[in-house]
Every structure is written in structure tokens, then in C-alpha cells.
Write a structure and sequence with these properties.
The complex is a heterotrimer.
Chain A (H helix, E strand, L loop, with lengths): L5 E12 L2 E12 L3 E5 L6 H7 L8 E4 L2 E4 L2 E2 L5 H7 L4 E4 L3 H4 L6 H12 L10 H14 L5 H5 L8 H13 L5 E5 L7 H16 L3 E6 L2 H5 L4 E6 L2 E7 H6 L4 H9 L32 E11 L5 E12 L4 E5 L6 H8 L7 E6 L2 E2 L5 H5 L5 E4 L13 H6 L10 H14 L16 H13 L5 E5 L7 H18 L2 E6 L2 H7 L2 E6 L2 E7 H6 L4 H9 L5
Parallel strand pairs in A: 3-9, 3-10, 7-8, 8-9, 14-19, 14-20, 17-18, 18-19
Antiparallel strand pairs in A: 1-2, 1-4, 1-5, 5-6, 10-11, 12-13, 12-15, 15-16, 20-21
Chain B lengths: L1 H29 L4 H6 L7 H11 L5 H13 L13 H33 L3 H16 L2 H15 L10 H33 L1 H8 L4 H19 L1 H18 L5 H11 L2 H29 L15
Helix pairs in contact in B: 1-13, 5-8, 5-11, 5-13, 6-8, 7-8, 7-11, 8-10, 8-11, 10-13, 11-12, 11-13, 12-13
Chain C lengths: L1 H25 L36 H36 L2 H15 L3 H12 L3 H28 L2 H8 L4 H37 L11 H9 L6 H33 L1
The chains are: A alpha/beta, B mainly alpha, C mainly alpha.
């Protein structure tokens, strides 16, 4: 690789907030037509590293570097005005959620055009006349495979789907023809099938000679597109190398831990026998476990659309959950997973069909009659913080879950809470903390402790690990699997993440537009998907090489 | 679809005005005291027969529902009744004074907007913004009548730049308008500045900066529109402040206007004028609300059916 | 760093100011031995100086004593009307928040209309109905403050009612009454306390404004708004008569706002 092709070169890049070092002596380089991935968990400094390459650090951050070249020019002493000439023209930025990353009050075309209004024609640098501007916008939208680009340019971001929005954002970043594109979690907010399309698009741009720095928390997402991977932790790059090399032969323990923690989808090309046993000691739900704990029959729930029509969020869903079974419910956003979970929990009443709990009616009865039995079915949400009264301490939160909690003596209650905290792996010293003083993983553990306090027969979990870092995710999944084994509690696990479901569950329901399109044992469904949608879903899951 | 929405909108506006008229009618009927006594003045010695005939003339001897219906039908025809004190139709009383108050309100609004925009948009840097926010707090917290007195004593009595009282020309308008404008500018500036700062924190602002946008472009093309949305929410409140401020300022600066009329009517219990002013205010409010809704739609494409969320803020 | 120090110093000054004004209202004798009503024809319109820190008015009354004694009416009206409005507002707002949609819709439509007007204008209309007088002024500013409390109490009730933790409590089988007592009410009260602190200031200004217009207490009562209106005619000779009562009003309102905002920030910190 000759120097002429090097677009970005940094050495000893350091970012400080006061005396706190958040990016520590990072060195990296990027050549034209290359994709470098920076991977790390939240707080690893990956985003700040990328922002430093745009001169867009937050207030109070101080940048220093031994070397920082963009297009061969030293940018270390750049003024704000110098940086403005680089941004958009030499380095473009694409960030996570296009709904908020594109100005919601402006038309998509105006957003794409803005870079041209600022920097002028990418070739000549001259001011562009209106007509040429419109034409270039259409061309740019076409370049990112936007269907009907002229019409899309006149629409507002909220009128586009998530995938199209992300394409528009990429088009706006590329309109100034920069040599470098920084993509900060470009697919995190997208459904898995759309994510695959956007990654394809980026891959194609790279092949056309664009240099891309992609930032992600997910090794699997970048595995398919990155030529090289840099793993960041606590502000440092702990390992860097060719993607295949890093993934197949990780040298740093942290990389190994990340790889081990990442849930994987069983590989379809292997015979079924090679399936990793999901969790030690678990039984498939089809075993002769007795009568089902929970039975859903022909469940349906309708919502009225703003235009007066009716949309079925859940339609004709039937399944059984046997004692100690684990059933995954997968689907993309808007498929009705969460609505289904709320019906199972008796939070909403079904419009059609019924739910029984332990053979007794659960839907269609009054809340008063449900109340005494609520301890049998418990709920873990994606947002544990929101599910806690902000004034309560951890022990008070957990105590609320105890059956007849007010009748227990305070000593018995305290002992029960200690046992519960212990069983979810929380130190008793946290009992006096309030929710906002806990980490994300700790919060989810408190939520689990509260849920198992009533010794439920079944836990309904709605995306319980989606908001967590990969390494924390793995520990929570282990915890749930352990509870299932030790307490014999059945799990209904709602998730968009097929790999997580495959790690934890025996059976799976695949939902689309409110209906179950396919169901069966995990190995069978994911290895030999029969429904085209399941196949698309499975194919779109990013895989490690 | 659109037609139906406009109809619903107009119906809603009528309901508000009708509600205000009804409330004014009911409450004033509950007020203790005989309106005829008020009309004649406390000192007047009138025979019961004379009072009775005046009552019959005004329809005050009719049952309440009959009075209500005739009151509404007169309102619809634009007849707000006759002032007890001035012996003039209420519409004339309001009409004569409206011009002065409108002039004052318009000048105040323009001043307030100018001051707020300068404070929110032009002032940059942490220290300067801190000072501006303290000034805004002072402006919001100071009672308008005190602001008026301080301005008077400094600029009229002290420096002699402006007249002490009256409504003559631009000179006479400056201090009264400034008195009303300062608190309004304080609130508006605060809301605008918070809105701008919030918008600057949004990801789209980062995206715009990553395209090479400078501070001027960022504010003019992006964040100011976002900040205008919460500021619009204040529109009703601001119009109310202009009217309420007029009552005080017209009294402090001895200016003619609607505020003076209102104050006199309240002090002398001239009920038809009070009712007329309440209904007039309701109509103003409804019109402002309509304009605000249209402005929301123009600014924010995400609004399909806006709620009339107009509320006081502090 | 410097900004934070300034903010903290401002908070301390504001709190001290509120304490001082409260003491003036409760025990004016601590501040001045002079009688606010005692006239002295030898000492008419004295400028501020030793003996008369705020000067004297046209009948020789000590302005400092008048301002100090005026605190009790202004603060009494401010605190009393705010407390009454708060209590009524919480009850009505919570009930409306828990009521069926149609009741809620109608009630809130009305409240929204009232909220479109500044408190002062509503208070003025209320006086138009009730007639002038010191007690009616207190009632009027209380009525004017009411819609804001109703709206916030209702909004908070709705937020808390739809919150994750109320749903979680429901999922745990906690009785609705218990949910209301242990989750809904405590979590609604906190933000209301904050706006009530700020509201005391607004109420004081509104009451002083009505007095200024001559609709409240009458001379010789030492009331801040009334003192100001008395000073209006003396502006040419004696600026101090109108100046100092205004300083006290503004200081009280600013202090209440500063303390209230600080409380709000503390509350937000705990919530997020």
C-alpha cells in the first residue's frame, strides 16, 4: 500500500475531558477502497475516535495526536473554519438513526443538497445553480439505490421507511464526494433484513474506492464488510488486524471474550447433530412435561388505524408452553411480538381467542380475579429502569414482588430479599441503592429478582437484553437459563435477535404482520426454514466467517 | 377530509366563544347587587317605580333563560349592550379605544421579538449566555408596573428623553411598549434559547455540522425552526400578556386604551362593558389559536392533526 | 466551574432572601422598631439615609418600616392562595386524570383555554366578578393559579399511570388502591411542589398588580403594590418611594424562581 492511497493516518490520538483520558493513544490508518471496523462496547471511546477525525468533539474535550493526516494534510492545528472545509467534502458521516440524524423538519432532498450548497460543486468547487443542485440530488439518491429518487427527494424523513431513510442519510454524506465515510452504528436501528441491504450498499461503495470506517458494538455485523478490525476497550485499541485473522485467531483476551459472548446462529450447513446444546440440562418443551402452563388459542388483537381502518396486530396465534419449556418469539419491528406478550400477560384483552394459565381461564376474566394469580406469570421488560418507581430502593422494589409481602415479618422479608438478590448474582450491598445508581446489567438483574420473588411458573421476557452490551447480554442469558434449570420456570422469550433466541430456547415462533408464519424446534426451523420469510430472516443474520 | 377538518375547527372556535359568553353571563348574574343601582350610582335617590321601569326596559324582570336567549341573540347581532356608566353602546366604547391598545400591543410584540431573538440567537459563548439568562430571569420576575415606574423615573423624569404620559406619537409609545415587552421578551428568549440548545444537541445538528455547516447556517437552516415550535406554544400566553400588560401600562403612563376602559369598568362595576371585554378577549384568543395551528403545520410536517396545546410556561 | 460557583452562590442568596422576607412577614419587629403608619410632618420625602434607609413618603412615614410590614400581606396572599390552589388543583387534576376519557377531554379543554391567559388577566376577570377588596384579591389570584395546578396534576397522573412501574406493580398483582397510594400520588406530588414554589412568586406579582391598580387593600395599609402606586405620583421628586417596594417584590419572585428551578433540576436528576 503506497502512501498516496492513504486517506487517514493517525498516531497517538488522545482525547481528554479534563484529566480523564477517554481515547488513549489510538493509531489507525485507512486507505482508499478499504473498510476499517472499530468495534467496542459502550464507553470504549469508539465514537469519540471517529468524531475526532471530523473535528467534531463535544465541548470540553481536548484532542492531541502525534500524527493526524487527512488526505495527506496535517489537521492537528486546524481552526474550526479549516475543519468545516474538510467535513462533508473530504470526510462524510453517517450515524445511527436516520429519523433523528436527518433534520425532521426539512425535505430529504434539501438535506442531501446542503453539502453541495456549503462546498459547491464537488469537482470545480463553484457555486451550483438550482437546477444542477436538484439534478445532483437525484443522482446521489439513485447512487444509493433509492427507488423513485425524484419523489423521495420531496418527502420528509418520517415519510420514509427505516431502510430508505438510512440510504438518504448515506446519500447526504456522500453528496460532497468525500474520500472517507465514517459510519457510526449505521445499521443498529434497522431490522435484520434491512440491515443486510444497507451493509451490501456500503460494501459496494467500498469496492468503488471509498474508504469506510465503520463503528459498531457488534463483531458479527462488521465481519462481512470490514477488511480490518480494531477492537477498542476503555479508550485503547487492544487488537487490530485483518478481519479473518482477528475473528478466527483472536490474540487479546478481551477479543476472545467478545467472540465467546456473541450469540451465534447455528450454521445451516452443518448436520443437525452438530447443534450446540443450547443450555446444559434444559429439556425440550415437547417432552412429556405434563399439562401446559400457558395455552394461547386463536389469539387476535386489532388496532384502529388513523384512517379509520382496522389492523390486526396479532391474528390467530395458538401455542402451548409446557412447564420449564423455553419458547422464543422472533420477528421484525411491527410484527406483533410485543402485543402478543401483553395479551399473554393479561395486560390487554384479546379481541379474539383466549389464554389459559394452568388450565384456568386467564383472558376474559376481571382484573380482580387475575390479581391473586399474577404471581404465577411474571414479566421482564426491555426497559427495567422504567419499570422501577424512581423513589424506591432495590430491596423495596424486590419486596413488592413477594407474595403477601406485607404480612411477612421484616426479618423474614429481609432474608428473602437477600436470597433473591443472591440468586440473580447481585451483592447484598446494593439493596439500599436506587435504580438510577445501578448499571444496565444490574437493573435487569433486579427486575429478574423481583419477577422470581413470587415463584412464578412462567416468565414472559420482552427483548430483555436488547439494550445491553454483548458481554452483559451473555451473563443475563446465562442467568435466565440457570433459573429455568434450577426453578423449573418456563420462559417465553420475545426478541428480534435470532441468535439470542437460538442460545436460550428450544422452540421458536416466527411472526410476521401479526401471524405465526412458522414454528417448531429451533434447530429445525433455523437450519431448514420452510417459509420464505424465515429463510430471509435467517439469511440476513450477520455471521462470523 | 380537509373540508370536514375546517368545519370542525370553526365549530370548535364558536364553542369557545359561546362558552366564554355563557360563563360571563352566568357569573355576572350571580354577582350580588342590583345592576340598576350601579347604573344610577350609589348616591342617586330613585323611586322603586322608576327602578322597576328601567328593569323592564332592560329585560331584567324576565326569567333567567329568557334573558340568556335574548342576550345570545343580541351578541350574534353584534349588540353587546349599553355601558351603565358611559351610556354608550359597548361596541362603540371598545371600538374607540381599540386602536390605542392595538398600537401598543403591536409595538410591544415587535420589541419583545427583537429583544428575545438577539438574546437567544445572536449572543454566543457560555459566559454571555449566562448573563443573558440572568437578565431574562429578572425581566420575567419583575412586576410590569415596577418596570414601568423605573423606566419612567430614569428616562422620563431623569434624562427627559421621553414624555411622562400620554399617547402622542412614537415618542410616547417607546416606554409603555418597552414595559410590556421586557417580561414577554424574557419568557420568549428563555424558550427560544432552550429550544436552540436542545436542537443543537440533536443528532441531526451533528449531521449538519459533519457536512461542514457553520454556526450561522446551523441556526438559520436547522435549529431555529425547531426552537420556533415551543415558542409558538407561547403565542396565546404572549397575547394575554400584551392585554394584561395594557391594563397596567395604560394606567402607569396615563394612556387611553382598552386597558383603561377595562379597569374603569371593573372598578365601577359597569357589567356590560366587562362582559363585552371578556367576549372580545375570547374572540382574540380563538383567532390567535387558529393562526398558531396554521403556523405549526407550516413549520412541522410531522403534525397531522395538531392539538391546540397552548399553555403558559415559565 | 465558575458558572457552577455562580449558580450555587445565587441559590444561597435566593434562599437567604426568602428566609429574610418570611421573617419580615412573621416578625417585622426584628427589622424595624418604627410604626409603618406613623406620620411625621417634619420628615417628609426624606431621601434614603441614616435613620430612614429607604427614605420617607409624602406624609413622613418610614418607607423601610412600610416595606417590612408589607411583607405579611404579600407573602400571606402568595403562600395562602398558592397552597389553596395547589390542594384544590391536585384533587381536581388527579380525579380528572383518572376519570373516563370524555370527562377528561371536556375538563381539559376548559383548563387549556384558561391557561392560554396569563394569571394576571384571569385574576383581573375574577376581580371584575367578585369586586375589589383585599380578600377578593387573594381569592382572585388563587383562582387564577388553579388551572396550572390542575393541568400539571392531571398530566403527572397520566404519566405515572402509564409508567412502566405502575404496569410492573399491576403485573405483580398489587391492588390498584395500593398502587395509587404507594406509586401514583407520591410521584405526582414532587413536580407539583416545584411549580408551587415558583408559583408563589407569580401569585405575589399578580396580587401586587391588582393592589397597584387600586383593586385591593387601600391606603394607609402598607402593601407592596399599593406602595408602588403611591410612589407613581412622586416619581418626579422622590424615586425611592416607588423603587424599594419593587426591589422587594422582584427579589422575592426571583428567589422563589431560583429555588424552584433548583428543586426541579434535583427532581429531574433523580428521575433520569
Amino acid at each position: 500500500m503506497t502512501d498516496a492511497h492513504v486517506l487517514v493516518r493517525a498516531a497517538g490520538l488522545t482525547v481528554r475531558f479534563g484529566s480523564t483520558v477517554v481515547v488513549d493513544s489510538v493509531s489507525l490508518s485507512l486507505a482508499a477502497g478499504e473498510c476499517l471496523a472499530i468495534v467496542g462496547e459502550s464507553g470504549s471511546g469508539k465514537t469519540l475516535t471517529a468524531r475526532a477525525l471530523l473535528g467534531l468533539l463535544p465541548d470540553g474535550a481536548v484532542l492531541s495526536a502525534d500524527e493526524l493526516l487527512i488526505d495527506g494534510a496535517d489537521v492537528r492545528r486546524n481552526s474550526e473554519a479549516d475543519w468545516r472545509r474538510i467535513r462533508g467534502a473530504r470526510v462524510g458521516l453517517v450515524s445511527q438513526d436516520a429519523l433523528v440524524s436527518l433534520d425532521p423538519l426539512r425535505r430529504v432532498g434539501r438535506e442531501v443538497a446542503e453539502v453541495l450548497e456549503i462546498h459547491g460543486d464537488p469537482v470545480s468547487g463553484h457555486r451550483m445553480p438550482w437546477a444542477a443542485l436538484d439534478e445532483t440530488v437525484t443522482t446521489q439518491l439513485g447512487r444509493v439505490a433509492m427507488p423513485e429518487p425524484e419523489e423521495r427527494a420531496r418527502q420528509y424523513p418520517h415519510e420514509l421507511s427505516g431502510g430508505l431513510r438510512q440510504r438518504a442519510l448515506i446519500a447526504s454524506a456522500l453528496a460532497g464526494k468525500p474520500g472517507v465515510l465514517i459510519a457510526d452504528e449505521p445499521t443498529t436501528a434497522l431490522d435484520v433484513t434491512v440491515q443486510a441491504q444497507v451493509l451490501d450498499l456500503l460494501s459496494g461503495l467500498r469496492d468503488d474506492g471509498l474508504g469506510i470506517i465503520v463503528i459498531s458494538h457488534d463483531l458479527a455485523v462488521v465481519a462481512g464488510i470490514a477488511d480490518r478490525v480494531a477492537v477498542m476497550r476503555s479508550g485503547r485499541i487492544v487488537e487490530v488486524g485483518a478481519t479473518v485473522e482477528v475473528l478466527s485467531n483472536p490474540r487479546h483476551p478481551y477479543t476472545r471474550m467478545l467472540l465467546a459472548a456473541a450469540p451465534r446462529l447455528p450454521d445451516a450447513s452443518f448436520p443437525e447433530s452438530s447443534f450446540p446444546e443450547p443450555v446444559e440440562g434444559s429439556r425440550p418443551s415437547t417432552s412429556s412435561g405434563g399439562d401446559p402452563v400457558l395455552r394461547a388459542t386463536g389469539l387476535g388483537r386489532d388496532f384502529r388505524r388513523p384512517d379509520g381502518g382496522v389492523r390486526s396486530a396479532v391474528d390467530d396465534v395458538s401455542f402451548d408452553v409446557l412447564p420449564a419449556a423455553a419458547i422464543g418469539i422472533v420477528g421484525e419491528s411491527g410484527s406483533g411480538k410485543t402485543t402478543l406478550a401483553r395479551l399473554l400477560l393479561g395486560f390487554d384483552a384479546p379481541d379474539r381467542g383466549s389464554v389459559t394459565l394452568d388450565g384456568q381461564p386467564w383472558s376474559g376474566i376481571t382484573e380482580g380475579r387475575r390479581r391473586s394469580r399474577r404471581g404465577d406469570i411474571q414479566y421482564i421488560s426491555q426497559d427495567p429502569l422504567g419499570s422501577f418507581d424512581p423513589r424506591y430502593t432495590v430491596s423495596r422494589i424486590v419486596a413488592e414482588g413477594l407474595r403477601g409481602g406485607s404480612r411477612l415479618s421484616s426479618r423474614t422479608r429481609a432474608a428473602r430479599i437477600r436470597t433473591l438478590l443472591d440468586s440473580v448474582g447481585l451483592d447484598a450491598s446494593l439493596a439500599g441503592r436506587r435504580p438510577h445508581e445501578l448499571s444496565g446489567g444490574q437493573r435487569q438483574r433486579v427486575a429478574i429478582a423481583r419477577a422470581i420473588a413470587s415463584e412464578p411458573r412462567i416468565l414472559v421476557c420482552d427483548e430483555p437484553v436488547s439494550a445491553l452490551d454483548v458481554s452483559i447480554q451473555a451473563t443475563i442469558i446465562d442467568l435466565l437459563a440457570g433459573l429455568r434449570r434450577d426453578l423449573g420456570v418456563a420462559l417465553v422469550f420475545v426478541s428480534h435477535d435470532l441468535a439470542v433466541v437460538a442460545t436460550l430456547c428450544d422452540d421458536v415462533l416466527v411472526m410476521r404482520d401479526g401471524r405465526v408464519v412458522e414454528s417448531g424446534a429451533i434447530g429445525e426451523v433455523f437450519a431448514h426454514p420452510r417459509h420464505p420469510f424465515t429463510r430471509a430472516l435467517v439469511d440476513a443474520v450477520p455471521r462470523m466467517p | 377530509m380537509v373540508f370536514r377538518r375546517i368545519l370542525a375547527r370553526l365549530a370548535g372556535m364558536l364553542v369557545v366563544v359561546w362558552g366564554a359568553a355563557t360563563a360571563a353571563f352566568l357569573v355576572l348574574k350571580l354577582v350580588p347587587g342590583d345592576p340598576v343601582d350601579v347604573m344610577l350610582g350609589v348616591s342617586a335617590q330613585a323611586s322603586p317605580e322608576l327602578k322597576q321601569s328601567i328593569r323592564a326596559d332592560l329585560g331584567l324582570d324576565q326569567p333567567l333563560p329568557v334573558q340568556y336567549v335574548s342576550y345570545l341573540s343580541r351578541l350574534v347581532r353584534g349588540d353587546f349592550g349599553t355601558s351603565y356608566q358611559l351610556r354608550l353602546p359597548v361596541t362603540d366604547v371598545i371600538g374607540q379605544q381599540l386602536g390605542y391598545t392595538l398600537q401598543l400591543a403591536a409595538a410591544s410584540l415587535a420589541l419583545a421579538l427583537a429583544i428575545a431573538l438577539v438574546g437567544a440567537v445572536v449572543v454566543h459563548g457560555r459566559a454571555a449566555r449566562g448573563i443573558v439568562s440572568v437578565l431574562e430571569l429578572l425581566a420575567i420576575s419583575s412586576p410590569p408596573f415596577w418596570i414601568g415606574l423605573v423606566l419612567l423615573s430614569v428616562f422620563a423624569f431623569g434624562l427627559g428623553w421621553f414624555p411622562v404620559a400620554g399617547a402622542d406619537g412614537i415618542q410616547g409609545l417607546v416606554l409603555p411598549a418597552l414595559t410590556i415587552a421586557l417580561p414577554v421578551a424574557g419568557i420568549l428568549g428563555q424558550v427560544l434559547r432552550t429550544g436552540l440548545e436542545d436542537a443543537e444537541q440533536q443528532p441531526f445538528a451533528t449531521t449538519a455540522r459533519a457536512r461542514g455547516a457553520g454556526p450561522a447556517r446551523l441556526v438559520l437552516r436547522h435549529t431555529l425552526r425547531h426552537a420556533a415550535i415551543p415558542a409558538l406554544t407561547l403565542a396565546g400566553y404572549i397575547v394575554g400578556s400584551l392585554l394584561g400588560g395594557a391594563v397596567i401600562v395604560e394606567s402607569v403612563f396615563a394612556r387611553p386604551g382598552l386597558g383603561r376602559v377595562a379597569l374603569a369598568a371593573i372598578t365601577n362595576r359597569d357589567l356590560p362593558v366587562v362582559m363585552g371585554i371578556i367576549v372580545f378577549t375570547a374572540i382574540v384568543f380563538v383567532l390567535v389559536n387558529l393562526v398558531v395551528d396554521l403556523a405549526y403545520r407550516a413549520i412541522d410536517p410531522r403534525i397531522a392533526a395538531p392539538t391546540a396545546a397552548i399553555r403558559g410556561a415559565r | 466551574m465558575r458558572g457552577r460557583f455562580a449558580a450555587r452562590a445565587g441559590l444561597v442568596v435566593a434562599a437567604l432572601f426568602l428566609v429574610a422576607v418570611t421573617l419580615m412577614a412573621v416578625a417585622p419587629g426584628l427589622f424595624t422598631p418604627l410604626d409603618p403608619l406613623a406620620t411625621d410632618t417634619d420628615r417628609v420625602l426624606q431621601p434614603p439615609g441614616w435613620g430612614h434607609p429607604f427614605g420617607t413618603d409624602q406624609t413622613g412615614r418610614d418607607m423601610f418600616a412600610r416595606v417590612v410590614h408589607g411583607a405579611s400581606y404579600s407573602l400571606g396572599v402568595g403562600a395562602g392562595a398558592t397552597a389553596a390552589a395547589l390542594v384544590i388543583g391536585v384533587v381536581v387534576g388527579t380525579l380528572v386524570g383518572l376519570a373516563p376519557r370524555i370527562v377528561d377531554g371536556v375538563a381539559m379543554r376548559g383548563v387549556e383555554i384558561l391557561l392560554a391567559f396569563p394569571e394576571f388577566l384571569i385574576a383581573l376577570f375574577a376581580i371584575a366578578v367578585l369586586g375589589p377588596g383585599p380578600v377578593n384579591v387573594a381569592t382572585a389570584v388563587g383562582v387564577a393559579a388553579l388551572p396550572a395546578y390542575i393541568r400539571v396534576a392531571r398530566a403527572e397522573t397520566l404519566v405515572v399511570r402509564r409508567s412502566g412501574y405502575v404496569e410492573a406493580a399491576r403485573g405483580l398483582g398489587v391492588h390498584p388502591l395500593r398502587v395509587a397510594v404507594s406509586h401514583v400520588v407520591p410521584n405526582t406530588l414532587r413536580p407539583l411542589g416545584v411549580i408551587a414554589t415558583i408559583g408563589i412568586g407569580t401569585t405575589i406579582v399578580a396580587a401586587a398588580g391588582l393592589s397597584f391598580l387600586g383593586l385591593g387593600p387601600q391606603d394607609p395599609t402598607p402593601e407592596w403594590g399599593l406602595l408602588l402606586s403611591g410612589g407613581r405620583n412622586l416619581l418626579a421628586q422622590a424615586w425611592w418611594v416607588a423603587f424599594f417596594p419593587g426591589v422587594l417584590i422582584t427579589g422575592t419572585v426571583v428567589s422563589a424562581t431560583v429555588v424552584g428551578r433548583r428543586l426541579r433540576r434535583a427532581g429531574e436528576g433523580r428521575r433520569s
